[in-house]
Design goal:
Layout lengths: L4 E6 L6 H13 L4 E6 L16 E3 L9 H15 L3 E5 L4 H6 L6 E5 L13 H10 L4 E4 L2 H10 L7 E3 L22 E5 L8 H12 L5 E5 L5 H10 L6 E5 L5 H4 L4 E4 L8 H8 L4 E4 L4 H4 L8 E2 L3 H12 L2 H18 L2 H12 L9
Parallel strand pairs: 1-2, 1-4, 2-3, 4-5, 5-6, 6-7, 8-9, 8-11, 9-10, 11-12, 12-13
Helix pairs in contact: 1-13, 6-11, 9-12
Amino acid sequence: MSAPLLLHIYPTFAVGGAQVRFAAVANRFGRAFRHAIVAMDGNTACQERLLPTLDVRFIDVDARKRDTIGSVRQFRRMLRDIRPDVLVTSNWGSIEWAMANLLPVARHIHVEDGFGPEERDRQLPRRTWTRALVLRRSTVVVPSGVLWGLATRAWHLDPARVHHIPNGIDLARYTPRPARMPGEGLVVGTVAALRPEKNIGRLIRAFATVAAGTTTRLCIVGGGAEHTGLEALAAELGVAGQVGFTGPVAQPAALYGQFDVFALSSDTEQMPLSVLEAMGTGLPVLATDVGDVRTMLAQANHPFMTAVDDAAYADGLRRILADPDGRQRIGMENRAKAERDYDQETMFQAYGRLFSGPNEELAR
């Protein structure tokens, strides 16, 4: 008997939190599942994270801009041709596939990881009622408590159908680094896609305010459309020599060990894997107070959660760089919390149960 076929729909399969998590889950279960993946924008860069032994194929799609009816008809034909056991959609950019499955061809799981800058401050009414209508009979997965509240209260989905599955990491890959020797320059680091909602500009501005002309360095790991503009900003603020850009890094685990402080400067997040990876490395975290980040971090780290504001963020960076004993203690507590709450095997088993769930759910 063939392994269940999962059809995954991503707005993009570039390297990002949702795609990296899927790769980890797929690798864990090996050939227990077959996978077909659609990247709506054609970007399949995260394919490099998938083991070559997996049964995976990528399917091209001719996405039609601003033609919802035509796209839904096309996607329904594709669903009938592919006949997956499970349709797994990801975020708003795949919602037309969920529409195509309203009269079910396959059992449907929708994974919602968060929102782009257009929904940073409020839910867009059209998207809210569309989610409420289209996802009402689907299984919905969210990584954060904030999203669970939105799904059940704003989208009016049945709480029994909304599954809160926190992200997890392979803690064995993240090793707490020893304290830096006196006199060595500190390193502030971040790992992020260089997109507007990550607001790396806020981090560079805070760094220039606090650390210009010192031996402290800023390391920015990740790629994206904002790279050139961020390099120009660092030069404009006079810290180009202290700010390094690595570009995309397929396996950044080792880089966390070079940091003294991990920085998250986003305008919007839910449950960022980068924060978990920093916690696993035993790092203190300077972060904007977004999504579930506060509940993720150890209590001792909470004084370094800041408002989504440049001045508050710069003040937080100043305080955390000036407190070496506090950084060491906070890092140890973050590692302990990651060990207690965020080991990846718990996450794997939760996704495995959903992916292999009974087809009888179609009748509900």
